[in-house]
Amino acid sequence: MICPEELNALITAPSIETLWDRHTRRMADYGFDRLIYGFTRYMTKTSLGDPDDFIVLSNHDTAYLDRFVGGKLYFNAPMVRWAMENDGAQSWSILHDMAETGALTEAERAVIDFNRSMNVTAGYSISFKSVSARAKGAIALTARPGLDQARVDAIWARHGADILALNNLTHLRILTLPYNGPARILTPRQREVLEWVGDGKTVQDIALVMNLTPPTVEKHLRLARKALGVETTAQAVLKAAFQNQIFVLDP
User: Fold this and answer.
1) Cys-Cys with 66: which of 44, 70, 97, 220 at CB 3.0–4.6 Å?
2) CATH label of the domain that carries residue 146
3) Domain termination residue (choose one: 120, 146, 174)
């Protein structure tokens, strides 16, 4: 049973780090000791978008993440494919059904073999409902070693509604908190000039407000566009707002 204090702690978490720590510890109480969360706002029909723009959170060990994320094995993971095509929660027992019906590609079988070698064998995946065709988020809940899929399904039968609710809430909360990928961090000056642009100010206006020269303002805008990997200042404002890097209060 989820208590109000637990919900309030998630809702009021001041940072993604605090939120994620609390969530991983709560999921471990249910038997899911390794989690990996991913979200993209820039998905297309042929791509999940630039990996530098992903939000990726995990408490898997480095050896697993280096191969699965760094080596882009996720691209051929069958449960990632399922998440892209569906919403809701799904037992990993579906992998057996995929194998039996010949629905797995050779590359997907290779991912399953790798997961087995890393003791990632039983669990559930949750695909979060999105209001945008270009955005998608999902989380994989890996059961602790020693729990087979039948026991995991039994846990889900008892607690699945609570687990799903906590993951949905955590997902929605993540989307409201600043997240800076390693190649997308804005400096305070870059954030400030983008905020003024978002407020409708011209370069000349911003120079007066910030006590800078117009060329210096232009430099900060150029570096912000480069850091965010976009071509125009309008795109930079939009992307920085999506990433909660501008117009946010410090925790």
Assistant:
1) 70
2) 3.30.450.80
3) 174
Residue 200 forms part of a structural domain: yes
Model confidence pLDDT, tens digit, residues 31-78: 999 999 999 987 877 778 777 778 999 999 999 999 999 999 999 999
Same domain, 167 and 201: no
Structure tokens at 77: 């993971």
pLDDT in tens, 92-146: 999 999 998 999 999 999 999 999 999 999 999 999 999 888 899 999 999 999 9
Q: How many domains does the chain have?
A: 2
Give a yes or no: residue 41 inside a domain: yes
Question: Is 247 inside a domain boundary?
Answer: no
